[in-house]
Structures are given as structure tokens and as C-alpha cells.
Amino acid sequence: MHPILADKKKLFIYLFAWVFVGILLALLFLPALDWTTSLLISMPLAFVYAFMSLASWYTSRSLPLESTGVLRIAVVTVLSSVISSSLWLILARGLSVGVAYFFSLPEAVEQFKSTYPILFGAGVLLYLLTTAVHYLLIAFEVSRNAERRALELKVLAHEAELRALRAQIDPHFLFNSLNSISALTTQDASAARTMCILLGEFLRKSLKLGAMERIPLSEEIELIRNFLSIEQIRFGSRLKVDLSIGQGTENCSVPPLILQPLIENAIKHGISQLVEGGTIRLESVRRGSHLIISVKNPVDADQKKSPGNGIGLLNVKHRLSNLYGHDGSVDIAQKNGQFSVELDLPALEQRK
Question: Which backbone phi and psi does 293 adopt, to 5 degrees?
């Protein structure tokens, strides 16, 4: 179906535009006919030709500009305009007879004959103009579809990259956790068993929440608590935690497992390298329309950076960049024996 016929609003606008065409035709008929007779003939003719001209839409679609020669398009369009205008002229003659009969204007038929050349030429021009408009509409539709496909491909590419980043994070964490359990088996078998149970519970929750695009910060914090309970079995009193969750931040949405790599990094490259251990501080606050989450931990300034350091942080940067663009950022700093990571992302409320 023609797109104009499928939309009542567009059809109304289209027919309203042809009202002006009818008025212009009446003006052309004025030398031969009086104003009333001109309108009685021109207005119905304009609306009839409005629907006849819609046929050029199908011709335009069957002869696309990209794959059809210009000469062929020109020949077909001109022939179509001549045929349509000829049919319009026949209808116009019949209409003039009807007007003369119903309104007792016997001289109207003879007077209207002198307008045939004008009417035929107007019909050809109107058909050609309508065809040009249809080609413009088709070009616009093609451009819009191309933009939509490009946007869809971009979204799919982002989703694929996010899935790849998630897949990279999970094995990285699991590898470190299994190493921790392996170390415990020779020192404290009971603690190793407890750690296995806690790890299983953590993985169950992380798999469930990790499949979501966003989760409330409160659920992400609960995951972090579970993760820290696993690590505290290994480090004991060396690992201390200070959580400060600001008012109004619990229901803000965050990507799942976005904090776990930061806490894991703080333990592996901070707490584990210090004999006395230290405190990991996790804080969340709202600053206007932004949610700020910071993770701080002590570090050994003399400790050399290990080759694997930075994978988790890099993944966090990539995920925020893909999800929020310039609205999401990661700020990393190290000063006075403290390593800090600050996440800045939009403070969007999690929909229930």
C-alpha cells in the first residue's frame, strides 16, 4: 500500500495540498469560464488527479535510480505522464458535461474545450512533479533505513564487546579464587571447605545478576560483601573493610560486577603485598545527576607492578565507556601510599 494511503494524517495533508492545485487550475480556466464554473470543474479534477498521481510511486519503486538508466526512467516517466494526463482529460470532458447538465450551463462544454491544451500540459507537469517527489521520498526512506541498520550494527557491536568483557572478567576472578582455595587446603582444610561453599554461593548470585544489563547498587554491594567474606577467610584480620554507602545511592543502577574487579585488584595488589594488611574503603555518594563510587586501599610504594595488574581496571573502563560514553569515567590515582579508583557514572534510578 502507498505510504500516504496507510496514514490518515498524511493523506489529509496530501489532499489539502491538492486544494491549492485545484485553485490554480480554476485560475487557468478563468479566461474561458466564469469563476464558479471553473471551481466546479477544477476542484473535483484536482482530487481525482491526486489519486491518479499516486501510481507514480509504484513506477518509481520499480525503477530505482541506483540500478536503472536515466534514459529508461525518463522515457517511462514521460509516457506515464502522457497516458495519465490523457485519461485525466477524458475525465475532465465527462465532468464538464455533468456540470453543464446539473447546473444548466449548456455553454460550459464548448467553453471548456478551449482549456484542453492547458489541462493536458498541467497534467503532464503535475505527474512529473509527483514522480520527482516520490523519488525524493524513496531516497529519504533508503537513507533512513541505512541509518537504522548502521545504528543496529553499532548497538550489536557494543553488546558483543560488553559480553566479551564480562567473559574476560569472570574467568580472571575464578582463577584467583581457585588459587586462594588451593593455598588454603594445605593450611586450613576447614577454611578451604567454607571458602568453596561461599564461592559457590557467590558464583550463583553473580551468574544471575551478571546476565542483567543493570542492577541496583545495593545488590552490587551485597555481591561485594559475599566476595569479601571469601577473601577474609584467606587473609583473616589483615583484611579490613570500611563501607560507606551514601543516602540515595542504593537504588542507583550500575553494571553488574563492576566493583568486583576493583575490590579484587585492591586485595591482590594492595592488601596481599602488605605484611600488616590494611583497610579497603568503599564509598558511594551522589553529586547532582552523577553517582560517584570510590575504592581506596593501601599499597606498598616499593612493590613492583606485576605483569597482570590492570586487566580488571581496563575492563571497567571499557564497560563504562560502552555503556555511558562520555558520561562515564574512571579516575585512578596513587598518593601517599594510597591507591584509589573513582567511578563517575549517571545516577539513574533502577526501574522495578
Answer: -125, 125
Cell triple for 183: 593455598
**Which has the minimum average pLDDT: 158-172, 214-228, 322-336?**
158-172
Closest to 261 measured CA to CA, from 224, 226, 293: 224
Look-up of cell digits 601510599: 337
d(CA 329, CA 346): 10
Give the model confidence (pLDDT) of 274-283 as tens digits: 989 899 999 9
The whole-model pTM stands at: 0.53
Q: Which residue has the cell 591482590?
A: 268
Say if residues 291 and 254 touch (Cβ distance below 8 Å): yes
Q: Is 170 exposed, middle or buried (0-12, 13-18, 19+ CB in 10 A)?
A: middle
Q: Is the pLDDT of residue 183 over 70?
A: yes
**167 CB neighbour count, 10 Å cutoff:** 11
Say if CB 347 and CB 290 are below 8 A apart. Answer: yes
Q: How far apart are CA 9 and CA 2, in angstroms?
A: 13
Domains defined along the chain, listed by start: 8-149 (no CATH), 187-346 (3.30.565.10)
Cell of 164: 566479551
- Over 50: is that where the pLDDT of 185 sits? yes
Q: List Cβ neighbours of 92 (8 Å cut-off, separation of 6 or more).
A: 41, 45, 112, 116, 119
For residue 165, the one-letter residue type is: L
DSSP string, 125-158: HHHHHHHHHHHHHHHHHHHHHHHHHHHHHHHHHH
